[in-house]
Amino acid sequence: MRHEARMHAESGEWRRRFAEEARSERPGLALLCLLIGAEADPGLDEAGIDAAEIELDRLAGLLPFRPGGPRAWAVAMAELLGEQCGFEGTPGDYQRLESSLLHEVLRRRRGLPILLSVVWMEVARRAGAPVYGVALPGHFVVGFGPRDDQVLADPFDGGRLLTGQDAELLVAGTAGTGVQPSMLTPADPLNIVQRILNNIRAWAAARPERSEVALWALDLSLLLPAHPARLRYERAQLLVQRGDFLGGAAALEEYAEVVTAVEPTTADRVRQQARAARAMLN
After folding, report:
1. How far apart (Å, rounded) are the C-alpha atoms in residues 202 and 247?
2. CA geometry: angle 205, 238, 222, nearest 5 deg
3. Pair 236, 219: CB distance under 8 Å
C-alpha cells in the first residue's frame, strides 16, 4: 500500500508539471514528451528525465556548426541521426508502447514517425536549425527553412530527404488527395503532444487489458489547454468499462451538463447512460 501511495503521489506531481508546462508561454516539447513517459514508466524519475535532456544536448553538440541552408541542415541531421546513430522506424514499432515514449526512443533509437521527428526537432533546435514538425495526413515528418525554400525529411526512413513527388505519394497513400499548402505548415507543439497521446490511446484501444494506459492518456489530454469536449465522454465511458460505475456515472453527468445547451438530445442520452451505470452498483 505504501508503494502504491508513493506511485500515486509521483503521478500527481508529474501531472501537475505537465499541466503547468502545457500552459506556459512557450511549452517545452521534449519535457512534455518526457512527462508522458514518466506517467507510462514508473521507473522514469527526475534523474532519467534529466538524462534524456542531456542526451538531446549531446547529440546536438555532434552536429557541424551551422552547416548552411535548409538542405544542408537536413543532410547533416540525416547523416548524424540516421546514418551514424541509427534512428529509424520499422512496421513493428507500431505495436510497441515504447515507440511513443521519448526516453525509450532515445534508448532504443526506434519509434513512431512522430517521436522520431521529436528527436530530430529537439536536436536540430538546440543546434540552431530552422526546424519544425510537419503533420502530413497519416505520417509525421520534419521541415527545414521557410515555405519557399522548404526541405522535408522523413526520420522514420532514417532521414530520407523527400522530393515533392515523395510528399505527394505519402499523402495520396493515406488521405487520397494531393498535398495542400496547409499540410506543410509548422505543427504547434501542443498539437504534437495531443497527437502523441492519441497514438497511445489507439494502441491501448486495441488491447482492452491495457485500459489503464488509455485512461492516463485521456487524463493527460484533458490537461492540455485546448482539447475536444468529447474526450470527457470517452473518459467517462472508459471508467464504466473498467468497473468504476460511480466515477463513470458522475463523469457522464458532468459531460451532459457541458453539452446540454447545444445538444440537449445528446445530453439526455448521456444522462440515461449515467443512470444505467449507477444501476450496475445494485
Report:
1. 23
2. 90
3. no
pLDDT in tens, 107-144: 999 999 999 999 999 999 999 999 999 999 889 999 99
Rounded-to-integer distance, Cα 188 and Cα 196, Å: 13
First to last CA, the chain: 28
> Within 10 Å of residue 53's Cβ, how many Cβ atoms?
19
Q: What confidence score (pLDDT) does residue 183 get? A: 82
> What would the DSSP string read from start to end of 128-170?
T--EEEEEETTEEEEEES-GGG-EEEEGGGTTEEEPHHHHHHH
Name the pTM for this structure. Answer: 0.92
Res 175: pLDDT: 66
Highest mean pLDDT among 6-15, 119-128, 161-170: 119-128
> What pLDDT does residue 1 have?
46
Model confidence at 152: pLDDT above 60: yes
Helical axes 189-205 vs 113-126, angle rounded to 10°: 150
For the chain, the C-alpha Rg in angstroms (whole number) is 21
CA distance 127 to 166: 27
The CB-based long-range contact list for 210-214 (8 Å cut-off, 24+ gap) reads 210/97, 211/238, 211/241, 211/242, 212/242, 213/40, 213/97, 214/238
CB atoms within 10 A of CB 148: 5
Sign of CA dihedral 185, 188, 194, 197: positive
